Amino acid sequence: MTRIAVAGAGLIGTRHLDALRLAGIPVHSVIDPDPSAADIAARHGVPHHADLAAALATRPDGVILSTPNTHHRDGALACIAVGVPVLVEKPLAATVEDARAIVAAGQAAGVPVLTGHYRRHQGVVAAARERIEAGALGTPVAAHAMFWIAKPDGYFDTAWRRAPGAGPLLVNLIHDLDLLRFLLGEVESVRAIASNRVRGFENEDHAAALIAFDSGVICTAQVSDAIVAPWSWEMTSHDNPAYPPTDQNALWIGGTHGSLALPRGDLWDDGGRRDWMTPIRRETLTRATPDPLVAQARNFADVIAGRATPVCSGAEGLATLAALDALIRATRSGGVERPTP
Ligand SMILES: NC(=O)c1ccc[n+]([C@@H]2O[C@H](COP(=O)([O-])OP(=O)(O)OC[C@H]3O[C@@H](n4cnc5c(N)ncnc54)[C@H](O)[C@@H]3O)[C@@H](O)[C@H]2O)c1
């Protein structure tokens, strides 16, 4: 049976541990320099290692790397060097260059690298992708993504969350951008404005972007972690019980023959009439889905066992990070920026 170690037992790492248990996948060990991780490991009945090298020496079958972004490169490369498949939390790395190094090393060594863009594992997302590809919206024309949420002051007590690169663009909008890429294809160019006017930290606390896709779709995206509002994937998807649920949507896609609101899965069309006086009707896509972190853990175990391909590979994580990097560059240049190949 595949045994997976979790490196970084913080906010998301502890959720990965629970997801592995729910998926019936044995946990190999918990890796974290913080002494409090020993209790977490004990709760799961597995060894605690203070560093990744010590854990890798005991041969886990895979590692979920849920450490701070700046550690992703070294952690992933250490796993790849000893032939251990690794699922790296998003963003794949702190920089595009580091992400490229991870993907290149994984490909050269033939070691699977996955990225933790867990939304791809949600049933309603898979259903939406199938229906878009089947032409339910006609030709996609436009999209709008919303991430407005209020992070409490205490969230920023952890030093790395105030450090450059830990703002809501890299931490949160990257999820929306990956979802947009999953549903609409590659990003062609980006324009964006960011501001830190609410908290005054080095990182932005809100931003707006205009994203053009290769397909011609034009998307507007809003991101803020300083606004009280019900429109974020976190609050609307109900996939993480930590967030209070709302009955709203966070992503809208419009096409020549219909439109879609997610994650509620409302698919609107007028029966092909394309006539503003014809009543439009709503179909609700089914969202039968396990916890997406559980589905992601199962995909990782299946990839390790050679039974599946990654739902979100390292290369996909790199492409999403490259698109986000273009967006961040656009906030600085004030011009049009393109993802680097
Ligand atoms: N998929 C998601 O929805 C999601 C949500 C939150 C965070 N994340 C990502 O997960 C990662 C961790 O975020 P978090 O909010 O859980 O952070 P966190 O600060 O809560 O936890 C990070 C943990 O890593 C440990 N750590 C630090 N250096 C380490 C090392 N060298 N080896 C092992 N452990 C080490 C820390 O002690 C801490 O316990 C980040 O990349 C973040 O972007 C993803």
UniProtKB/TrEMBL annotation:
Q: Name one GO molecular function term.
A: nucleotide binding
Q: Which InterPro entries does the record cross-reference, listed alphabetically? A: Gfo/Idh/MocA-like_OxRdtase_N, Gfo/Idh/MocA_Oxidoreductases, GFO_IDH_MocA-like_dom, NAD(P)-bd_dom_sf
Q: Which domain of life is it from?
A: Bacteria
- Ranges of residues in domain Gfo/Idh/MocA-like oxidoreductase N-terminal: 3-117
Query: Which intervals hold domain GFO/IDH/MocA-like oxidoreductase?
Result: 126-260
Query: Looking at the Swiss-Prot or TrEMBL record, what is one Pfam family this protein matches?
Result: GFO_IDH_MocA
Identification of the protein by name: Predicted dehydrogenase
